[in-house]
């Protein structure tokens, strides 16, 4: 009885197996490379607030600049502002072009979020990440702080930083308006009556009867009549005396 000897595999099968082993050895490390070499997003942040001296009611701009930005596909910026002095303005914050930017307000906080759209690449280099309008609602020293930053890469890697940067600004109160005095009515000068000729006192001589405010005509007539009577009586008496002597 002869022993059974297993048949050797065909040459074509051996060649295929060798080719598969060689392909795995060559392309296997390349297929695993993206996962092994995926780097987290990175950036260094600067916060600027302008103007640094403002007046109550003015609009200020908080600008966040990223330097050394690497593969940032989305981010969240959380701001804290001094309540009663600063608040979010009515204008919407702006972010980099090629993405969508939104903002949510809270008590003394403003959260600005941005994400790239579609196949837009992640941000890199030096980038203005956000410009946030603020309104001066009061007066005094006010603080703007970038309290938290969350970065997301194009491969969904996430990095969070806290207590990132801060700036202080001085807000001057509006001047108190000075009330305008109401002009008083100008008094009208009253006409002064000038003395008329009839009311002016007549000049009196030493022997004239002085009159004041009374019509002197009747007195003058009666005085003249009395003088005439006295003169007539004196003539009559003188003639009578002359007749007696004769």
UniProtKB/TrEMBL annotation:
<protein>
    <submittedName>
        <fullName>Cohesin domain-containing protein</fullName>
    </submittedName>
</protein>
<feature type="signal peptide">
    <location>
        <begin position="1"/>
        <end position="38"/>
    </location>
</feature>
<keyword id="KW-0472">Membrane</keyword>
<dbReference type="InterPro" id="IPR008965">
    <property type="entry name" value="CBM2/CBM3_carb-bd_dom_sf"/>
</dbReference>
<feature type="compositionally biased region" description="Low complexity">
    <location>
        <begin position="185"/>
        <end position="204"/>
    </location>
</feature>
<feature type="transmembrane region" description="Helical">
    <location>
        <begin position="219"/>
        <end position="238"/>
    </location>
</feature>
<keyword id="KW-1133">Transmembrane helix</keyword>
<keyword id="KW-0732">Signal</keyword>
<feature type="region of interest" description="Disordered">
    <location>
        <begin position="173"/>
        <end position="209"/>
    </location>
</feature>
<dbReference type="InterPro" id="IPR010916">
    <property type="entry name" value="TonB_box_CS"/>
</dbReference>
<keyword id="KW-0812">Transmembrane</keyword>
């Amino acid at each position: 009885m002869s022993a059974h000897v297993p048949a050797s595999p065909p040459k074509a099968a051996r060649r295929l197996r060798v080719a598969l082993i060689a392909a795995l050895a060559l392309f296997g490390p390349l297929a695993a490379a993206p996962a092994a070499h995926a780097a987290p997003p990175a950036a260094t942040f600067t916060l600027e607030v302008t103007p640094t001296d403002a007046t109550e009611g003015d609009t200020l701009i908080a600008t966040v600049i990223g330097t050394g930005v690497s593969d940032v596909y989305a981010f969240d910026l959380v701001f804290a502002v001094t309540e009663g002095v600063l608040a979010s303005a009515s204008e919407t914050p702006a972010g980099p072009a090629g993405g969508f930017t939104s903002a949510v307000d809270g008590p003394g906080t403003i959260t600005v979020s941005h994400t790239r759209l579609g196949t837009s690449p992640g941000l890199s280099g030096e980038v203005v990440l956000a410009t946030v309008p603020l309104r001066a609602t009061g007066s005094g020293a006010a603080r703007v702080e970038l309290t938290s930053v969350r970065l997301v890469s194009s491969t969904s890697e996430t990095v969070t930083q806290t207590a990132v940067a801060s700036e202080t600004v001085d807000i001057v109160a509006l001047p108190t308006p000075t009330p305008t005095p109401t002009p008083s009515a100008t008094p009208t000068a009253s006409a002064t009556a000038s003395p008329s000729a009839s009311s002016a006192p007549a000049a009196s001589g030493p022997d004239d009867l002085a009159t004041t405010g009374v019509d002197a005509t009747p007195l003058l007539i009666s005085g003249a009549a009395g003088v005439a009577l006295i003169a007539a009586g004196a003539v009559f008496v003188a003639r009578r005396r002359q007749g007696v002597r004769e």
